[in-house]
Amino acid sequence: MKLLYQTHSPFARKVLVFAHEAGLAGQIEVIHHETSPTLRNDEVFALKPLGKVPVLITGAGEVVFDSRVICTHLDRFHPGSGLFPEDDHDLIASLRLEALADGLSDAGILVRWEAVRRPEALRHRPFLDGQTTKLVEGYDYLEQHISLDDRITVGQIALATSLSWLEFRGLASFRENHPMLSAWYDRFSDRPSMKATTLAGDTHD
Questions:
Q1: Where does the chain show beta strands of DSSP type E?
Q2: CB 20 within 8 A of CB 197
Q3: Full-model pTM
Q4: Shared-domain flag, residues 190 and 93
Q5: Do 57 and 101 fall into the same domain?
Q6: Residue 153 has what pLDDT?
Q7: Which of helix, strand or coil describes residue 151?
Q8: pLDDT in tens, 110-151
Q9: Which of 60, 88, 114, 117 is deepest in the core (most CB within 10 A)?
Q10: Residues 6+ apart with CB under 8 A from 143
């Protein structure tokens, strides 16, 4: 399998951490691609009309995207019990956590574009504040309502990689007033899967 990847993408890293946790990383060739709304990558567009990574190419040549679909596909080959719970209640909880984590990444990307990448004269403060509010409200919800001490699931992987990216970019901090979330993140960051997939470099996200 081949994975089109960016080292600084929370969604691409989610897939690679998932592959490590599933025992499949050794079967995947990681191919780095830079993509951006303002920097077209023709190779990525040829495979995915949205022009974004991650994109997985299977051994049979099938193209799989986005990160949620890729993780679902990879879990079929997990040699163990899988990272998607079999119990319906636990599965919904894990998928809900994944959706929240992906939403935090989405909001963080919009914050970064509005605060850093957009020309200063075109920045819109209410939009920036609205996206930042999503981050803070998300942290509060996680601190108050989510149990993170269960078995490793796709939801936990998505959350850890999202929080890592948000901290890497210096966006609204999840550490202030969220001790349980912070302690869980620090424990998860010590996992070999996280250490093998560190973020790198300021590029065009």
A1: 2-5, 29-32, 55-57, 63-64
A2: yes
A3: 0.94
A4: yes
A5: no
A6: 97
A7: coil
A8: 999 999 988 999 999 999 999 999 999 999 999 999 888 778
A9: 114
A10: 177, 178, 179, 180, 181
25 and 105 share one domain: no
Share of the chain above pLDDT 70, in %: 97
What is the C-alpha separation between 71 and 194, in angstroms, rounded? 16
Full strand arrangement of the beta sheet holding 55-57:
29-32, 2-5, 55-57, 63-64
Which residue type occupies 22?
Answer: A
Q: Which position has the token pair 């951006």?
A: 36
Expressed as residue numbers, the domain containing 30 is: 2-75
Tokens 């996680």 sit on residue: 142
The pLDDT value given to residue 81: 80
138 plus 52 within the same structural domain: no
For residue 66, whether the previous peptide bond is cis, meaning omega lies within 30 degrees of 0, is yes
Instruction: Give yes or no: residues 190 and 102 share one domain.
Output: yes
pLDDT averaged over the chain? 94
174 and 137 belong to one structural domain: yes
Same domain, 118 and 55: no
Distances (CA, A) of 35 to 7, 9, 23, 199: 11, 10, 27, 16
The three-state secondary structure class of 184 is: helix
